[in-house]
């Protein structure tokens, strides 16, 4: 701390005039939540009304002429955890039923329902406690690693040309179980339920200021930017297939330049990428609320937007949130 008291080390030399605002994006997400809350409460008649209407439509990717009604808005919505708690509290302690739903979601499309059930039963029979335990907790992760992780780790060190189709399937199963774990521990910053032309939709908003998309480890131990992909998996599980989720709107992981995937491009396509594409391609039943997808919101001051990001100017947000 002595440097702060030196002539050349005064605070003004450390604080940037162009960026002298808190960089904690959660507080900005909370401010945006308040904008949606005002729209829900129909508090749009004052001086901020036009800004609120425009911002809500922009974040939901709607045209200026489209009229939207906000039914509900949630901050840091723990969709998967609360869904699990519902089964625990309202379904006579049937957490196991929920766990099997999640596991089938992550395995059926690659194995078929019958073989997926056999694989799930094999995993759960070794440790009965797994049936009702929260999939995202350490206990579950350790069990999956014991059942599949060590073998998959060995395979990833081999020449990919020598890996058999059966072994590739084992890698795919491990990738699916990893997705289940990630889904249970992820939450959208804001979840919006809205009425558009008489139909209900739910949309997840992932809010960023200066940070990049969050990373998760894949089956090879490589860290991939797949935060938005996991959010899409959650939305598909809870609200069914997103009919307008074209290739441009998907947030797909990739192996980046990790040495763990060096010279294994074909293996990536035949295992992980096949699973990541397949889990979003499966035909999921929809309920009363349709899947509105996932959108990245970028709070900006002097930042450049990337493709697919929606800009919310911080200065305007701070001036209009009250």
Explain what this protein looks like in three dimensions.
This protein has 322 residues and is α/β, with parallel strands linked by helices. It folds into 2 domains: 24-77 and 188-254 and 284-322, no CATH class; 83-186, no CATH class. Helix content is 45%, strand content 15%. It has helices at residues 25-40, 49-59, 79-90, 95-111, 113-126, 138-156, 165-185, 227-239, 265-270, 272-281, 314-320; strands spanning 68-75, 190-196, 199-208, 215-217, 223-225, 289-300, 310-313. The protein has a 5-stranded mixed sheet. Helix 1 (25-40) crosses helix 2 (49-59), helix 3 (79-90) packs across helix 4 (95-111) and helix 4 (95-111) runs antiparallel to helix 7. The relative contact order is 0.14.
Provide a short characterization of the protein structure:
With 322 residues, the protein is α/β, with parallel strands linked by helices. It has helices spanning 25-40, 49-59, 79-90, 95-111, 113-126, 138-156, 165-185, 227-239, 265-270, 272-281, 314-320; strands at 68-75, 190-196, 199-208, 215-217, 223-225, 289-300, 310-313. The mean pLDDT is 85.
């Amino acid at each position: 701390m002595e440097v702060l008291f030196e002539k050349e080390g005064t605070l003004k030399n450390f604080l940037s005039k162009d960026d002298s605002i808190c960089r904690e994006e959660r507080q900005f997400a909370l401010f945006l939540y308040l904008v949606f809350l005002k729209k829900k409460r129909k508090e749009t008649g004052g001086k901020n009304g036009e800004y609120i209407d425009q911002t809500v439509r922009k974040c939901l990717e709607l045209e200026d002429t489209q009229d939207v009604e906000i039914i509900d808005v949630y901050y840091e919505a723990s969709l998967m955890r609360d869904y699990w708690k519902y089964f625990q509290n309202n379904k006579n302690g049937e957490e196991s039923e929920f766990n099997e739903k999640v596991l089938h979601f992550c395995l059926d499309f690659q194995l078929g329902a019958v073989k997926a059930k056999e694989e799930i039963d094999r995993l759960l029979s070794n440790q009965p406690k797994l049936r009702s335990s929260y999939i995202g907790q350490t206990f579950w992760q350790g069990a999956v690693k014991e059942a599949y992780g060590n073998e998959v780790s060995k395979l990833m060190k081999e020449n990919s040309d020598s890996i058999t189709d059966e072994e590739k399937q084992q890698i795919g199963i491990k990738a699916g179980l990893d997705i289940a774990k990630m889904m249970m521990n992820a939450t959208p910053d804001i979840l919006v339920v809205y009425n558009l032309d008489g139909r209900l939709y739910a949309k997840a908003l992932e809010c960023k200021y200066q940070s990049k998309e969050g990373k998760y480890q894949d089956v090879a131990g490589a860290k991939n930017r797949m935060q938005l992909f996991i959010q899409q998996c959650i939305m598909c599980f809870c609200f069914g297939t997103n009919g307008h989720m074209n290739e441009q709107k998907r947030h797909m992981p990739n192996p980046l330049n990790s040495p763990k995937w060096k010279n294994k491009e074909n293996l990536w396509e035949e295992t992980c990428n096949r699973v990541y594409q397949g889990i979003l391609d499966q035909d999921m039943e929809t309920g009363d609320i349709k899947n509105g997808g996932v959108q990245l919101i970028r709070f900006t001051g002097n930042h450049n937007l990337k493709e697919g990001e929606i800009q919310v100017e911080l200065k305007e947000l701070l001036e209009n949130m009250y």
